[in-house]
TrEMBL record:
<comment type="pathway">
    <text>Purine metabolism; IMP biosynthesis via salvage pathway; IMP from hypoxanthine: step 1/1.</text>
</comment>
<dbReference type="GO" id="GO:0000287">
    <property type="term" value="F:magnesium ion binding"/>
</dbReference>
<keyword id="KW-0660">Purine salvage</keyword>
<dbReference type="GO" id="GO:0052657">
    <property type="term" value="F:guanine phosphoribosyltransferase activity"/>
</dbReference>
<dbReference type="InterPro" id="IPR029057">
    <property type="entry name" value="PRTase-like"/>
</dbReference>
<dbReference type="GO" id="GO:0006166">
    <property type="term" value="P:purine ribonucleoside salvage"/>
</dbReference>
<comment type="similarity">
    <text>Belongs to the purine/pyrimidine phosphoribosyltransferase family.</text>
</comment>
<keyword id="KW-0808">Transferase</keyword>
<keyword id="KW-0479">Metal-binding</keyword>
<keyword id="KW-0547">Nucleotide-binding</keyword>
<keyword id="KW-0963">Cytoplasm</keyword>
<comment type="function">
    <text>Purine salvage pathway enzyme that catalyzes the transfer of the ribosyl-5-phosphate group from 5-phospho-alpha-D-ribose 1-diphosphate (PRPP) to the N9 position of the 6-oxopurines hypoxanthine and guanine to form the corresponding ribonucleotides IMP (inosine 5'-monophosphate) and GMP (guanosine 5'-monophosphate), with the release of PPi.</text>
</comment>
<dbReference type="GO" id="GO:0006178">
    <property type="term" value="P:guanine salvage"/>
</dbReference>
<keyword id="KW-0328">Glycosyltransferase</keyword>
<protein>
    <recommendedName>
        <fullName>Hypoxanthine phosphoribosyltransferase</fullName>
        <ecNumber>2.4.2.8</ecNumber>
    </recommendedName>
</protein>
<dbReference type="InterPro" id="IPR050408">
    <property type="entry name" value="HGPRT"/>
</dbReference>
<comment type="pathway">
    <text>Purine metabolism; GMP biosynthesis via salvage pathway; GMP from guanine: step 1/1.</text>
</comment>
Length: 180
């Protein structure tokens, strides 16, 4: 698997340090509030699993799975809910946990959809922000790292469902795209 990694963009140590910082910031901001951390499957799972253990407050977590209609890697902005929340959110502050915000189309749809359910608030924490590709007017409230316009894998992010279990964020070699 790692023979196809061209270079490490964010190391395991850098990821760990930043997740601790994000957890501390969220802990300060949400003191006394009832939080629902909402992970977006599947990419957010490793980040969310580490982050929730750095949020030193009582919280609940749940997941949604979304799929965007579009041609291959091009997101169209039309999103379908594959797995929805299991309960009402009217009494909670929702903190959406994402691995990456790219065009922002997924997040724009999701925020609008969730706001219609009348939660106390909706905010977003993302591990990575690729702002150069933004098409929708959305800004994450908490961002781990701003990254350049490169396709990255690892720590939840995949290429054809592989590489999600790498402990760092890396950039693939050209060969990796050619063999698949
Ligand atoms: O800002 P956007 O351009 O809308 O892209 C961001 C979305 O794309 C990725 O999910 P993906 O559809 O690859 O699913 P996965 O998490 O299961 O890999 C990521 O987890 C975000 O949900
Ligand atoms: N794996 C992966 N998925 C993405 N979805 C949007 N941008 C990216 C990216 O850079 N890598």
């Amino acid at each position: 698997m790692e023979e196809y990694i061209d270079r490490v963009l964010i190391s395991k140590e850098e990821l760990g340090k930043r997740v601790v910082e994000l957890g501390a910031e969220i802990t300060r901001d949400y003191e006394g509030k009832k939080i629902l951390v909402l992970g977006i499957l599947k990419g957010a799972v490793p980040f969310m699993a580490d982050l929730i253990r750095e949020i030193k407050l009582p919280l609940a977590y749940d997941f949604m799975a979304l799929s965007s209609y579009g041609v291959s890697t091009q997101s169209s902005g039309v999103v379908r809910i594959l797995k929805d929340l299991e309960r009402s959110v009217e009494d909670v502050h929702i903190l959406i946990a994402e691995d990456i915000v790219d065009t922002g189309l997924t997040l724009k749809y999701l925020k609008e959809n969730l706001r219609a359910r009348n939660p106390l608030s909706v905010k977003v924490v993302t591990l990575l922000d690729k702002a150069a590709r933004r098409k929708a007017d959305v800004t994450p409230d908490y961002n781990g790292f701003s990254i350049p316009d490169e396709f990255v894998v690892g720590y939840g992010l995949d290429f054809n469902e592989e590489y999600r279990n790498l402990p760092y964020i890396g950039v693939l070699k050209q060969e990796a795209y050619e063999i698949n």
